[in-house]
Amino acid sequence: MDISVIIPEWPAPSTVKAFVTTRQGGVSVAPYDTFNLGEHVGDVAAHVAENRQRLRSLLPAEPLWLSQVHGITVRDADHAGENMADAVVARRAEIVCAIMTADCLPVLLTDRAGTGVGAAHAGWRGLCEGVLEACVSSMRVAPEELLAWLGPAIGPAHFEVGPEVRAAFMRRDEAATLAFQPGRADRWMADIFLLARQRLVRAGLSPDAIFGGDLCTVGDAVRFFSYRRDGVTGRMASLIWRESDRV
Predict the structure, then answer these.
(1) By CB neighbour count within 10 A (0-12 exposed, 13-18 middle, 19+ buried), where does 54 fall?
(2) Are strands 87-90 and 74-76 parallel, antiparallel or unpaired?
(3) Confidence of residue 201 (pLDDT cuts 50, 70, 90)
(4) CA 119 – CA 34 distance, rounded (Å)
(5) Looking at residues 159-188, what average pLDDT do you find?
(6) Could you give phi then psi for residue 219, rounded to 5 degrees?
(7) Which residues contact 154 (CB under 8 A, 6 or more apart)?
(8) For a 10 Å CB count at each end of the chain, is N or C smaller?
């Protein structure tokens, strides 16, 4: 089976390349079938290694894999540093920034001139604490020059949260109330895409520079892994890099 990927629809410069993997195209067996890229989810190590080797054939270099911890630390890939982070930025060509998800929101960034790229892992905790703002700041360009793409994540029809989650976002920004609809009892249905858009706009991005946000991992079991839906499952990767400046 060929590797199936999703290419962002956004006006990024031609030198910026990006895609998100799906669950199709690998060798893992259920419940990780088939293109699981996560080494930490209980899959057979040899299967993950083979899947990552297949992924590598589509890339200019081995991805910079992070140890994601639902925080707001940003890894600057242009310099040596620890990989325990939830966002990564790079200005040098052919450094592949990677984020792994299975319901959390992957956010890809570039500037309009294509001088740098970034990727952020925005689960609700990191999103609430400011991982997107930290990644925007680390891009080192004026925020109004940035473009963002919101990848596959748990959609608003499936993201049920407790009142403490809504309260945490409301403490940061009262406008977050627009991203929560009443659910069962004291529960709320959260729109993580809208929450991310609000945070990016507050960080200085133009609203019309934010794309994506229409792919639900829970509702599409054919293409996407989903922790909320399946519990034990694999991980997709969202990847972005600059092409080499060499002719």
Answers:
(1) middle
(2) parallel
(3) very high
(4) 24
(5) 96
(6) -80, -5
(7) 103, 104, 192, 216, 217, 218, 226, 228
(8) C
- Dihedral sign for Cα atoms in the order 52, 56, 57, 59: positive
Q: φ and ψ at 59, to 5 degrees?
A: -125, 160
Q: 150-188 as b/e, with b when 16 or more CB fall inside 10 Å?
A: bbbbbbbebbebeeebbebbeebeeebeebbeeeeeeeb
pLDDT at 245: 72
pTM over 0.90: yes
Q: Can you give the pLDDT at residue 2?
A: 87
Give yes or no for a contact between 76 and 138, defined as CB atoms under 8 angstroms apart: yes
Q: What is the mean pLDDT of the chain?
A: 96
> Comparing C-alpha atoms, which of 63, 103, 102 is closest to residue 83?
63
What domains does the chain contain, in order, with CATH numbers? 5-155+212-242 (3.60.140.10)
pLDDT for residue 1: 63
Q: Hunting for tokens 């450094």 — which residue is that?
A: 95
Mean pLDDT of 130-147: 98
Dist. CA 43–CA 32, nearest whole Å: 7
> Which residues, at least 6 apart from 156, have a Cβ–Cβ distance to it below 8 Å?
181, 189, 190, 191, 192, 193, 194
Side chain identity, residue 10: W
CA atoms within 13 A on the CB side of 65: 13
- pLDDT tens for each residue of 11-70: 999 999 999 999 999 999 999 999 999 999 999 999 999 999 999 999 999 999 999 999
